[in-house]
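agent> step 3/5: call structure_predict on target 'Malate dehydrogenase' (Ligilactobacillus animalis).
agent> reason: downstream docking stage needs a structural representation; sequence fetched in step 2, passing through unchanged.
tool.input:
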Amino acid sequence: MADTMNILNNPFLNKGTAFTVKERKELGLTGALPAKVQTLQEQADQAYGQFKRKSSQLEQRQFLMTIFNTNRTLFYYLMGQHIVEFMPIVYDPVIAESIEQYSEIFTRPQEAAFISVDDQDSIEESLRNAADGRDIRLIVVTDAEGILGMGDWGVNGVDIAVGKLMVYTAAAGIDPAQVLPVSLDAGTNNEKLLNDPLYLGNRHARVYGEKYHAMVDKFVAAAEKLFPESLLHFEDFGRSNAAVILEKYQDKILTFNDDIQGTGIISLAGVLGAMNISKEKITDQIFLTFGAGTAGVGIANMLFDELVREGLSETEAKKHFYLVDKQGLLFEDTEDLTPGQKAFVRKRSEFENADELTNLEAVVKAVHPTVMIGTSTQPGTFTESIVKEMAAHTKRPVIFPLSNPTRLAEAKAEDLLKWTDGRALVATGIPAGDIEYNGVTYNIGQANNALVYPGVGFGAIAAKAKILNEKMLADAAHALGGIVDPDQPGAAVLPPVSKLQEFSQTVAQVVAQSAIDQGLAGVTDAKKAVADMKWEPKY
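tool.output (status=ok):
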């Protein structure tokens, strides 16, 4: 009986009613299931019918999580059939609600590893227990200090790691039995959580400094020891730690920080797509990033590297960038600059009115950006007057309000088109439907990291790459930016989510080939390596 229940309760092995009569006999399942043997498609149709009957998106997510917890094959088969509809449910924006309510609705840990800053001697044991003998090739780890645009959500943030891994499998085809979500619980500064009797994480202020970094180092060492062929994907770490951790490890192990590098890749891909449409050169653009945190600086770095690759000197390339944060334009003497911000500061002597450049509108009037990217989490800050001011000085303004979830977006795509008389080239951080304006149907690209990180990570793993470097990331951005149809009226700057699986394969092959070309791979045939590793949801 124990073995029977183990099979039915193991989401990696369970087929539910799809076990054949022969399998039921062999596995000791005779009489443990109703008589009818269903096909995978019949199970999927049944599940989708239930999904559609749920009254809210959060309920739909909880229902899908029940399937995920019960039968991974069915979950991914179903998601593959409804990827556009399911993406916002299993990931952003609905995952934000799930994170906020994680402790209240907790039922299962979803095969995650929970590591506590207060029990660092158990880190290796925790990883081993969670993996349960599985061949782990991909780890998504978060300390949840910077969840989406929501801030510090402590142990609740493990949901973001689970969600990221779902997208990896659905988009690129990594075997769900080979992934591991990890929560680094360093405490939380979220008073709401600390005062919530149901909160499941460490009930103390967030730990920083030496003790925190000791936890990260022990985690990395244990992960490398137990899972030497794995990619470590860091997700939603706070501004003070994210870049520090990436810089420490990116040249030593196979690692990736989605907030810094993923956001950078997708933004570069979107800008390249916009250039294909406008027929302009990227080296002629003036870039303004509004929100100079981890994501904003990551975007600036990726775009800067592209300008250098296109032939500009580093000094010349730097002149094309303006970073605006809550203090206004970042200058050399701005207080509390991060190392990443310091690379892009301006001199006050460049401006006659430097002291007045304390808000976005003043900066836009002063510098006339041609590309404006928002990662500020400040809703509605790309106002009509700012957008019209920008559009007055460039033929095709490129405007990406990337903050998410929906309530934190800097602007709506519809407004940006209206305020620019249809000239704006827009990408958003959250899904946006087609927009009809002046007889043209505008497709709005979603600058969602989900379009790029699955292919990047999968390609690096398939290639058995030693590291994941800037050249591989840039090659991924070019692969994405080159997929759009520039001559279609209202064309999107990025390919649609409906083709996520298709272009994830393209990106994976490009990244694997880049690793091979640089002598950083453990394989010689990129296409074969990607194809051999791809998992399909079938019984």
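agent> step 4/5: record observation. The chain has three domains: 2-90, 94-257, 261-526.
agent> proceeding.
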